[in-house]
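Comment thread on ticket #2218

A.B. wrote:
> Attaching the input chain for the structure job we discussed in standup.
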Amino acid sequence: MESARHVRLVVSGMTCDECARHVREALSDVPGVQHVEVQDWRMGRAEVVADLGVSEEDLVRAVREAGYSATVQPENETARPALAKDGADVDLLVIGAGSAGFAAAIKAAELGRSVTLVESGTIGGTCVNVGCVPSKTLIRALGVYHLAAHHGFRGVNTVAGALSWPELLDQKDALVQELRQSKYVDVLKAYPAVTYVQGRACFRDAATVEIGGSTLRPRRVILATGARLWLPPIPGLREVNPLTSTTAMSLRELPRSLIVLGGNAVGLELAQVFARAGSAVTVVELMDQIAPAEDEEISQALAGYLEMEGVRVLTGVTTERVERRDGRVVLRGKGRNGEKIELAAQELLVATGRRPNTEGLGLENAGIRTDDRGGVVVDRFLRTTNPAVYAAGDVIGRNMFVYVAAYAGGLAAENALAQRQTPFEPGALPRVTFTDPQIASVGLTEREALTAGYQVKSVTLPLAYVPKALTARDTRGLIKLVANSATDRLLGAHILAADAGEVIQIAVLALKFGITVKQLTQTLFPYLTLAEGIKLAALSFEKDVTKLSCCAG
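C.D. wrote:
> Ran it. Output below, let me know if you need it in another format.
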């Protein structure tokens, strides 16, 4: 009669030999465990011999309490990468080596599977190369430059001085190269089960993919090809060779004047960067407000702050034609009341959104459907219309945020390779526009909540009533909370403030766990923090915060 059992765990989160030691010690401390083997943290596995009375839940809990996560690998699954099983060359083919693709490849390697990761462009995808990393470092740099000449402290005499734009670009490029190397190229070395291939992938049929003249028959495929910049079908637009966010951040010489077509996050962020660097900037937006997805009060306030910095903001403008005339780009259109509009500038930057990268993949050969914008159609488990192919990240055409892509990539790998299926549910999804002040929001706006049929109550707190803003001499902005008056639960939070992105997670957790406005008011927030503004806004539903002393609730 057997007196012991063998359990194999797939462990996530180990990054070094010390991590392996922590996992080994945590499992060894479980009563009834006889022996633990964690041979190599890169393989993400732990072998446990334990008494029959030791439950799998006890082992998983021990790993979790040590700071990692674990799942039990079924006995019928092989511990090592399974090649050429059922005619397959590899367990998982991941097409696209950006955030979603890397998350998928890493998760598959942690599950003990063989992976081929293929990329046709630059490893790392949009975020590290031409998106988040380069734009945010420029935003921060120009924020420092602007603050030197614009702050509210008497007796503190600072001068902005001369701006060396080329030197700033060199530093930005060096950071991109460093992070691409450390967060992508070097990371691959930690996962020997992942084979990286530089080349273009194309489906030849439902089960075969061609990569650079060679063919591969993977057991499962994950599409993670991201998205590309999109130029709207405006007559003359392509002919004037407009700037995009990618090319604008590589200009070695600042334009004297700039038209930014598109008033959403990317357009607004770069508009402010170039305005602070010295360009005369005009933002042109088709919708009736900039940052169209945001609350109206937030949008109107930000437009005012940008205009105070010299940015011209035009909304409700339909662009009818673009052309070059006398060495300048000329934009012709009409306003919301039908009035003619003509603008001219040295350069035109188009920031009108992105579209999924699905062209040239041969998706039609594999029976994979796309929508009218080119996004891959998936079900709630991220499975495409080909049951052996999953998709994650911007290629599905929604929730285009790098943190969502990473979450979806790992989930797609689990769903593709494991026997269980977990639905893709981003839940309370925060978003940040890195202007100054920043927009940070989560949940429903007041208008969206009313449209959805909720009994709505809302409150708007200007930052002039937040002690942190007063001490920082920067009261630009507001905090708006939207709640369900029937249940008192928070429905949305919208913040316009210098560091709004640093505190929105409080509201994210409140929405995720159904916290009420009253519970927010009963929670301690540290004094002289922007986070305290959320409590003050919550208190404003019932009290006049102007009549409260410091820290009083």
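A.B. wrote:
> Thanks. Noting for the ticket: DSSP finds 15 helices and 26 strands in the chain.
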